[in-house]
Amino acid sequence: MREREGSEEEDSSEEEDSCSAEELVGLAVPPSLCPQAGHSQSGVYELQLGRLQVSAWCEQQLEGGGWTVIQRRQDGSVNFFTTWQHYKVGFGRPDGEYWLGLEPVHQLTSRGDHELLVLLEDWGGRGARAHYDSFSLEPESDHYRLRLGQYHGDAGDSLSWHNDKPFSTVDRDRDSYSGNCALYQRGGWWYHACAHSNLNGVWHRGGHYRNRYQDGVYWAEFRGGAYSLKKAAMLIRPARP
Ligand SMILES: [Ca+2]
């Protein structure tokens, strides 16, 4: 499992085999960012964010590398219908489906400007991208409110509608709808009333699904709200000047 807050003594043995990158050898303190482009492998790295230590997937082969994957869906192996506390600290496995955690993402994005890349794939193998030239989360006291920059891409913009919205989970309803969006859509997200996207919904095999609620892994401007995507990932990296 991934390491949580402030227990540096416990994690070293557990994480040893996932930390094989040469860059880490001999360093007393793990880096606070994924390695910069070019000379490192994609994989699981330990990052030290102040007192917080997390394991994250660093993606080095894409557009120059240096990306931290903060969310990934690909096989339905992890339950994303979970509580505020789990969304805060993170869950799943960084080499599979996972959510890095609202607090680590807040910590990362409060250390300088970041960009966000959303990678999507449908069940026919068609890919699409949504890129936002800035991305950050406010602190927990502001419910990890989403701050998003300009959209570019070919997926369609299904996240700007959620800009400036607080994060909601089934047990922390901060959405602007009379009901509980996270309950109906079965995952935490920056709900409005309710959503143009929810990449944390139920991973329905095959794409189209029939359900009382719109609870799939969806990006409405790409394949519509009633289509559950096969793959989704959210990646961030420091913005280039
Ligand atoms: Ca509500």
UniProtKB/TrEMBL annotation:
Which stretches does UniProt call biased (Acidic residues)? 1-20
Which residues does the annotated region (Disordered) include? 1-22
Q: Which InterPro entries match?
A: FIB_ANG-like, Fibrinogen-like_C, Fibrinogen_a/b/g_C_1, Fibrinogen_a/b/g_C_dom, Fibrinogen_CS
Q: Which CDD domains match?
A: FReD (cd00087)
Gene Ontology biological-process annotations: blood coagulation
Give the location in the cell.
Secreted
| Keywords in alphabetical order | Coiled coil, Disulfide bond, Glycoprotein, Secreted, Signal
Report which superkingdom the organism of origin falls in.
Eukaryota
Q: Which PROSITE patterns match?
A: FIBRINOGEN_C_1, FIBRINOGEN_C_2
Signal peptide feature range: none
Keyword Secreted among record annotations: yes
Q: Where is the Fibrinogen C-terminal domain?
A: 25-240
Kindly provide the name given to this protein in its UniProt entry. Answer: Angiopoietin like 6
**GO cellular component terms?**
extracellular region
Q: Which SMART domains does the entry link to?
A: FBG
Task: Identify the taxonomic lineage of the organism of origin.
Answer: Eukaryota, Metazoa, Chordata, Craniata, Vertebrata
A matching Pfam family? Fibrinogen_C
What the entry lists under SUPFAM superfamilies is as follows: Fibrinogen C-terminal domain-like (SSF56496)
